[in-house]
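dumping these here so i dont lose them again. two proteins, back to back, each one seq then structure tokens. dont judge the mess
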Amino acid sequence: MRQKSVSIPVVLWLISGIVLVLAMVIIGGITRLTGSGLSITEWNLISGTLPPLSENEWLVMFEKYKQFPEYQKLNFGMTLAGFKQIFMWEYLHRLLGRIIGIVFIVPFLYFLLRKMLAPWLVKRLVFILLLGMAQGLMGWVMVMSGLSENPHVSHYRLAAHLMLALSLVGVILWTVADLVAPVEQKSTAKRPAYTLSWLVLGAIMAQIVLGAFVAGLKSGFSYNTWPLMQGELLPGVLNGVSFSEFYDNGVAVQFMHRWFAFVALAGILLLWYRVKQQVWRGRTQQFASLLLLTGIAQVLLGIFTLVLVVPISLGVLHQLVAVVLFSVAVLTVHQLRQPELVKVGYATSTSHQRV
């Protein structure tokens, strides 16, 4: 058990990191939906901080882009003005990554030198730093997969890139929760709701991975009807598709993403019901209710995004709400670590006792 010792500047700093990562997710979504992700064909950590500043520099960057299959096969004939448009979204995405690194490292060193960080927190922050570095590296590994004869990034690498971003958000949120609302005492009692909350978190992450597969395979632009897929529950084109090919098949991935959403939502509903049945503190019930409302909103948003053929605004919003849903699930799990209250039959005056 950690004693409650909240440093407001540290908490605000960590929250600012979460906000910046969410902004990164938004710009990343726009970059993907506008087809901008392969416009910068080099990874120059320092020299790439500034965009082209003259017409000649723009022409040099454009010529480099022309050497790769995306231009030759998909964007042949693109004008310099069109290139500038896709370039700037990818540039902003990378620039924000650099800003996040600075916003994390500089205050971290300051707090460390001022001895404002407990030993356990230093270890956690080093882990967060490593996660952030892995996220940036995976972003480039993902881009490299599209600088090939097949000018599309690997949906596996796209999913890994997104999951690292989620992990970053999750660990930072968990750290903030440890600082603001540390677990008061450990309970050895079996708590089904706590176990279920981890399963729900896992289901949400699995659904987000499927969503990344849908995005990477661009399968959200096909079968834009709901609940059936062009009049079929399971499209006939999937007949004969082997299990090894399933996750590389856009139709199969869209089918799984459609219906696994309701599996995850059912888990969220069951968790909400379990929490309501137990005498958890009010904050826990609030998190469970917020999780359920966010889950319902995300499913509805996904349906609208599909039937409207993935407009950029809804596609980005769907991705953002997925991160919010994941975040609420993380906080719900953390809150459920608190020991539950005494049985329902006890009087209100005893409600602060712990099992």
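---- next one ----
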Amino acid sequence: MRKKYILIIGLGLLVLLLFPFIGVIDVNVDSIFSGDQASFIFWKLRVPRTILGFIAGSSLALAGLIFQNIFKNSLATPYTLGVSTGASAGMVLGIKLNLSLAALGLNGLYIYGFAGALISISLIMGIAKVVKSFSIYTLLMSGVAINFFFSSCIVVIQYMFDFTQTIAILRWLMGGINPTGYEELLFLLPVYIFFVAMTFFLKNELVIASAGEDFAYAKGLDIKRFRIMLFIVVSLIIGILVSFVGPIGFVGLIVPHISRIIFPRDFKSVIFSTMIMGGLLLAFTDFIARILIPPAEIPVGIITSLIGAPFFLFILISTLRQKN
């Protein structure tokens, strides 16, 4: 197990240290302190981009792990539950209406993305309250329905854009990591630290939750309240994240499964592996996206979808075979 830890940590450090030096314009160690163009590219573009990619990927992977545990569904992610689609709809509406409301030194559109995620969560919880059931089935099916609803809203709003706006918003909907400087990181880093700390703190409860409602109640865990609390908190965190990087799919689906294969018996190690490998995956795919067809860039969401779609089918087929 120690060798696995060393390998995962080593890969994480390699990504964070190496990727900022490589690109259309290669940067060497001597030039990063020179104050010229290479120094600007390194410190203002590539370093924050690599770190943001790591934080985003790590957060998406942890969210997928938590949702898969509390809903006992290997295909549950923030995207299948409608949270990211709600955030995307908020962003798209803000762009269409040309809304501007800066806060904390950040682009006001982030606020509308977060508001969209909040509305999505409220609708899901409202449906559960109306039917008087907060079961796994109710929350999952409500999330899927809300996902389709907000997807339709996005299409309607897009239809009202002119051609130039449509291309721009389509690119954003494919996901992208394009910070200029460290303002976004300074805002997201405390959220990320809280998320990681919360996940490790609740590791035992997450294991109990994955074993079923009867077992959870026998262990003294109010599973329904626990599930609702985590769903709301994690969804809000993902809403914030999607507002910054767009709806990047499949990271939360792929990484938890790989982590469980690497550490099949130790959930604490699964959390650690998911946190690191989620960051690695998104930082790596973003690296590929910016060097594959220079000087143009491919939206990183396309790369993750190309990797994730076959993996999704593999999980689906494996699940169906086990049931049969």
